[in-house]
Prior knowledge:
Elements: E1 5-12, H1 19-35, E2 40-42, H2 70-82, E3 85-95, E4 98-106, E5 112-117, E6 142-144, E7 149-152, H3 161-169, E8 174-178, E9 182-184, H4 189-210, E10 213-217, E11 220-223, E12 226-229, E13 233-235, E14 241-244, E15 251-258, H5 260-268
Amino acid sequence: MNPKIVKTGLIQMNCGTDKQFNLQKAEARIREAAKLGAQIICLQELFATQYFCWEENYDCFSQAEQIPGQSTNAFCSLANELDVVLIASLFEKRADGIYHNTAAVIDAGGEYLGKYRKRHIPDDPGFYEKFYFTPGDSGYKVFKTKYATIGTLICWDQWFPEAARITSLMGAQILFYPTAIGWARSQDEILNRQQFEAWQIIQRSHAIANGVYVATANRTGVEGSMNFWGGSFISDPFGQLLAQASHDKEEIIVQELDLQKINETRIHWPFLRDRRIESYKPILRRFLDDE
Length: 291
């Protein structure tokens, strides 16, 4: 097998209220993706639970867990058995009163490589994440897995080009975005379409600007006030869609990626070469007003 070819799998599913059921369902989907040839498999954001952030409810903190811990230990065994890399987004309890939205990365062979804690935390109707999550403070992360060097960012991070740029500069070949995003159930179809297109376009632009693959696993189904829009997809370094799931069905995407295309794309579109880093200091300010 060409060492530059890697098969990436995305799992798009809906979630019930029973955490153990969701975990078992995720395991079954991972096994199915592995049978289809997937070597790196990404689950959606907070796949072990329903998306509880549609409301502010103190009882939801009881669903958090240690990372590494029981869930990651189980996935380490699964990764070892199937020889796959797993990206698992979980509700992490770091300490009493400190909780994170966290992606754990497990290498093929079952080694726990580490975690990325979501840095950009939204607070919008239906997405009250600031109530639950402390912003990640351990920096952006890349993980050198058996099959590729990957970067993990999470949902709201996907709107910020700075996060994609930094993770790409750290060596990521594929940017993974475990995601939970959808339409308010009261919205009209025109606004729904506009929001989905904006969401996909911004991520495809990260692929183009950085010359990397982008892979986004979203959830689907109705939970609380949200109708999650699915649409999980994979984009190549030129921003072209390689695969996309439907809006309303549980699906598994498995797509072959040629990592040689990263260098080929960057040679012809040398954005990283032509960066004028000495001119970018103003980006460290919140807003360029008169202060």
